[in-house]
Amino acid sequence: MRAAIRAVAFDLDGTLVDSVADLMHASNALLAELGRPPVDLPSVRSFVGDGAAKLVERVLAATGGVPAPDEAARCVERFLEIYEADPSANSVLYPGVAETLEALAAAGLRLGVCTNKPMAATLRLLDDLGIAGRFAAVVGGDSYPTRKPSPEPVLGLLDRLGVRPEETVFVGDNEHDVAAARAAGVARVLVVPYGYTRVPLESLPHDGVLDRFADLTGRLSC
Ligand SMILES: O=C(O)COP(=O)(O)O
Ligand SMILES: [Mg+2]
């Protein structure tokens, strides 16, 4: 018999929040300080998903090249300083997210976030958008030695939520979410079609596409 679903784990960027405008803003503030040209929204969108250090590396590669490791590390630090100061000025929840989280929490489900975004910026963003209180646990890209597509942060999140993988549905937007959740052994992996995926969703081993985020409430029973 299949275990009943007791928890839902969510990816953040591209799944719950359209955050790319603020990531672009922080990237361009860094580039201006370096005397480099700005990057545009579609480029930044394609750079998101592997955490802040990779995002900055891709931004630098696209605007004149990646500097030596020390200098690149300073760029990541400066980017985070700028981004963490205001990660939500132009970021919005996708349609249906606030209502659906409220309905799931009211139904007694344990909700969690597993993102590759560093924790400090993640907590500030969730707080600014008014949904921090919905989550019983949050795991960021710097919470464990590895990030998604490793299953480690997913398993860490489930541990903090006090649920087993077979009692959990994971909702994400890209190939790292599907790989990490599958490797963690969750009951079901659902994907949203509006996020920042770099590969076609139909090529990924997920269990279904949520055409509307609100459809999630109907997809949690067997
Ligand atoms: O790459 C990031 O910083 C965040 O990405 P995620 O929330 O989609 O995991
Ligand atoms: Mg994502």
From TrEMBL:
It catalyses: 2-phosphoglycolate + H2O = glycolate + phosphate. Keywords: Carbohydrate metabolism, Hydrolase, Magnesium, Metal-binding, Plasmid. One of its GO terms (molecular function) is phosphoglycolate phosphatase activity. GO terms for biological process: carbohydrate metabolic process; DNA repair; glycolate biosynthetic process. It comes from the Bacteria. The keyword Magnesium applies. The active site is at D11. SUPFAM superfamilies: HAD-like (SSF56784). Mg(2+) binds at D11, D13, D173. InterPro entries: HAD-like_hydrolase_sf, HAD-like_sf, HAD-SF_hydro_IA, HAD-SF_hydro_IIIA, HAD_2, HAD_sf, PGP-like_dom2, PGPase_prok. Pathway: Organic acid metabolism; glycolate biosynthesis; glycolate from 2-phosphoglycolate: step 1/1. The keyword Hydrolase applies. One of its GO terms (cellular component) is cytosol. It is an enzyme of class 3 (hydrolase). Its EC number is 3.1.3.18. Its cofactor is Mg(2+). Specifically catalyzes the dephosphorylation of 2-phosphoglycolate. Is involved in the dissimilation of the intracellular 2-phosphoglycolate formed during the DNA repair of 3'-phosphoglycolate ends, a major class of DNA lesions induced by oxidative stress. Belongs to the HAD-like hydrolase superfamily. CbbY/CbbZ/Gph/YieH family. HAMAP family: GPH_hydrolase_bact. This is Phosphoglycolate phosphatase. It comes from Azospirillum ramasamyi.
